């Protein structure tokens, strides 16, 4: 099979890596010059967890997300997951039982346990520990660009070609079959085209007259230089999400709406720095390093859009949020379908056909 993957973000890279191991002729195309940097991958907070919102058909993927990250870490030397656990707190009533264990094994901890577990072990630098918090010890985070690079290197090691700086301008068809990709450097034939181009998926699928309702949502990621060991876990507080990466930088995601001007971003950075200093001891000297802005693909119903478009052969879609959490699992399931010929039950609720089915 000649497989062309459009999109060298973490999802496309995961699919390409798995496919190339199956002795498939794989070519990966991306308009960017650096793997993942020009799309949502490069601005992702990259929190890997199995809790939170898993809408619609996405719920069937929940159980496999973390195990596939553990497997990928064992398989590829360039994949390093920081299994720090996550600590989350929101406004919660204080009349609940002292300890509540959720269905995924996490614990809701009360003030007494905060003193023993959260402050002393998890986050000793918190200025004002919450009265209640949820501790997810199995959560982790990655450097998504490093992982994407490792996946593409793995694919190349198995014979794949990665073509960066090559823009997919359209899909060529013969009858009802897609036979390749029109690109900025010419036509590339394929038996199957996987479109994993994030917010670019609707444009490439528009000629087929099938709705692929994906909108772009701006994501801002701020990086601050900070003392090592300032933040231990992934923190998800009422007004601040933050984690510290392997090099010691603090990563802070932020919402920006549609205004991504320099002035707006400077304001976001200033407010984020104030929040960090107000939340942690020893944070007075943090300094902004850089800000990245990416466009996250957001399917209309929140669930991934994965699979063939009805009535079109040789075309397969893979677009989702969050791609970082799901990438290793999606890589395995998609290749299982395309090359193994085995339909993945976990993907049944994610099919593009759900948008064309009459209600």
Describe the structure concisely for a colleague.
This protein is of the alpha+beta class and 359 residues long. The chain contains seven helices and 20 strands.
Report on this structure.
The protein has 359 residues and is of the alpha+beta class. The protein folds into two domains: 2-79 and 143-213 and 300-355, FAD/NAD(P)-binding domain (3-Layer(bba) Sandwich), CATH 3.50.50; 86-139 and 216-299, D-Amino Acid Oxidase, subunit A, domain 2 (D-Amino Acid Oxidase, Chain A, domain 2, 2-Layer Sandwich). Helix content is 25%, strand content 28%. The protein has helices at residues 10-21, 62-75, 111-122, 144-157, 201-205, 262-279, 323-338; strands at residues 2-6, 25-30, 47-48, 86-88, 100-101, 107-109, 133-136, 140-141, 161-164, 168-174, 177-183, 186-189, 192-195, 214-225, 234-236, 241-244, 250-254, 287-299, 305-308, 315-319. The strands form four sheets. It has a nine-stranded mixed sheet. A six-stranded mixed sheet has the order 9-2-1-13-20-19, with helices on one face. A three-stranded antiparallel sheet has the order 10-11-12. α1 (10-21) packs parallel to α4 (144-157), α1 (10-21) packs parallel to α7 (323-338) and α2 (62-75) crosses α7. The two termini are 36 Å apart. Mean pLDDT is 90; it is low at 92-99.
């Amino acid at each position: 099979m000649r497989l062309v993957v459009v999109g060298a973000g973490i999802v496309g890279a995961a699919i390409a890596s798995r496919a190339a191991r199956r002795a498939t002729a794989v070519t990966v195309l991306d308009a960017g010059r650096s793997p993942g940097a020009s799309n949502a991958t490069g601005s992702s907070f990259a929190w890997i967890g199995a809790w939170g919102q898993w809408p619609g058909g996405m719920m069937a993927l929940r159980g496999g997300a973390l195990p596939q990250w553990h497997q990928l870490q064992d398989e590829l030397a360039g994949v390093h997951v920081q299994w720090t656990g996550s600590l989350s707190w929101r406004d919660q009533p204080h009349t609940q039982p002292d300890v509540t264990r959720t269905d995924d094994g996490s614990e809701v901890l009360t003030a007494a346990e905060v003193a023993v577990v959260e402050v002393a072990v998890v986050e000793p630098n918190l200025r004002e520990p919450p009265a209640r918090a949820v501790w997810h010890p199995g959560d982790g985070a990655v450097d998504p660009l490093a992982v994407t690079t490792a996946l593409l290197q793995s694919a190349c090691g198995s014979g794949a070609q990665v073509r960066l700086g090559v823009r997919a301008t359209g899909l060529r068809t013969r009858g009802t079959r897609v036979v390749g990709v029109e690109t900025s450097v010419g036509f590339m034939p394929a038996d199957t085209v996987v479109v994993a181009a994030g917010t670019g998926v609707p444009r490439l699928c528009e000629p087929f007259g099938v709705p692929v309702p994906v909108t772009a949502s701006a994501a801002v990621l701020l990086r601050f230089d900070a003392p090592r060991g300032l933040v231990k876990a992934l923190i998800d507080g009422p007004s601040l999400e933050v984690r510290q990466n392997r090099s010691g930088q603090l990563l802070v995601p932020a919402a920006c709406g549609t205004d991504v001007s320099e002035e707006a971003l400077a304001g976001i950075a200033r407010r984020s720095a104030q929040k960090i200093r107000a939340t942690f001891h020893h944070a007075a000297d943090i300094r902004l390093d850089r800000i990245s802005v990416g466009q996250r693909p957001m399917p209309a119903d929140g669930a991934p859009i994965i699979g063939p478009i009805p009535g079109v052969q040789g075309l397969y879609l893979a677009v989702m949020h969050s791609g970082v959490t799901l990438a290793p699992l999606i890589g395995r399931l998609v290749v299982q379908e395309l090359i193994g010929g085995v339909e993945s039950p976990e993907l049944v609720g994610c099919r593009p056909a759900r948008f064309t089915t009459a209600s």
